[in-house]
Amino acid sequence: MMRSFKTTLTAAVLALGFAGAMQVQASVVIGGTRIIYNADDRETTIKLSNEGRSPALTQAWIDKGDPKAAPSSIDVPFSVTPPVARVDPGRAQTLRIIHTGEPMPQDRESVFWLNVLEVPPKPTAEEAEANKLQMAFRSRVKLFFRPAGLKRGADEAPAQVHWRLVQMGDRTALEGRNPSPFHVSFSALEIVGNGKAAQFNDGGMIGPGETKAFPLSGEVPRGPDARVRYEALNDYGGAVKREAPVDAQAASPAR
Asked: Fewest CB within 10 angstroms: 20, 89, 96, 99, which?
């Protein structure tokens, strides 16, 4: 079974490359864009729903951040039950995620990724004759392990990020330094002022104690009137719009 899923996983990665051009989508939908696992919980759950018209076979596993890692080679402190499941059309399957007890950092969040691979059913004789293309889809969502001492404060973490302008080669970037023990995720970043604006629209995340630079596109404003506008994602995946000042200093090379 695992050998066949390794082959399917390769097909899934290739399929993801075609998905944007063909405008196709998976039938199995994950019931959330992120998972918060509180350390004092025995387990956490997330629901998979099949919104398609055919049964789907799913495989679920957790990785450390490398999307190319094979499930059989990954060592993480979590188990997912069931790892393989059939989800009928219009039905749902609940995944149980259980921390297996290995020691984790207690002064900051840790981040992992839940993967759900959807394998379409074997084509019928009619579909095979019509040369119908079937594709496997993989979805990934972030799994945050939150120590017991960090139950509060995640909502305030985006406001603690310090921003400054830096140079990345021939481009100007917006650098954020996150002093909080939480991961801060952004769906959009923009710096505005003096009638100018520059953006970073690809989304990103700054880990606890991490500094990261986001290259900007547009006219970068300078001076004391420049402000950062951002959309930070909360624990429920909702975007929270806020503003923040930019450190008053000339752009310097990125760290």
From this structure: 20
